[in-house]
Design brief:
With 156 residues, the protein is mainly alpha-helical. The strands form two sheets. The protein has a three-stranded mixed beta sheet with strand order 1-5-4, sandwiched between helices. Strands 2-3 form a two-stranded antiparallel ribbon. Strand 4 and strand 5 form a beta hairpin. It is globular, with a radius of gyration of 17 Å.
Length: 156
């Protein structure tokens, strides 16, 4: 929520990447809403919001976590739709998208197994994630967050 975003900014973080474009988030000082391009949410804080890709009308975001469950076809579909938007792509990877499964003793429920992607070995997740990055590299210039922040700071 907006209060959490404000706390993240005040803690000194340089960027956040948790908002989807034009999806309002209530906050203590109004409603946060990002566009499709990197932006500052508050004029008094330097933190930059790197918005996640808009995925509607698809039912789920097409970042790695969902695409590892649904298949690379889902990622390719989301990427093709996003390319038509002509905006930067922020591709989100979580540790669970690359890591080995939780030990069997820690998989106490199907939800725990599902949300940690513990149905798949780390090497397979890494191989499939690399294929996603290769697909992205065919259409976008890959950059790291630090470089993007410098470019965004120069543009604002």
């Amino acid at each position: 929520d907006g209060k959490t975003h404000r706390m993240v900014a005040e803690a000194g973080y340089h960027y956040d990447s948790s908002l989807f474009p034009r999806r309002p988030v209530p906050s203590g000082d109004g409603v946060l809403e990002s566009g499709q391009r990197p932006c500052r949410l508050w004029p008094d804080h330097p933190m930059v919001e790197l918005p996640l890709p808009r995925y509607a009308p698809l039912p789920f975001p097409f970042h790695a976590s969902y695409s590892l469950v649904l298949g690379n076809w889902y990622f390719r579909l989301g990427l093709a739709r996003h390319r038509r938007s002509n905006v930067p792509l922020v591709l989100l990877f979580h540790l669970t998208d690359l890591a080995d499964p939780l030990p069997a003793g820690m998989r106490r429920s199907w939800k725990n197994t599902f949300f940690t992607l513990s149905h798949m070995q780390g090497a397979e997740k890494q191989r499939r994630s690399m294929r996603m990055l290769e697909s992205v590299a065919r259409h976008y210039r890959l950059t790291d967050t630090g470089t993007l922040l410098l470019e965004t700071a120069q543009d604002t």
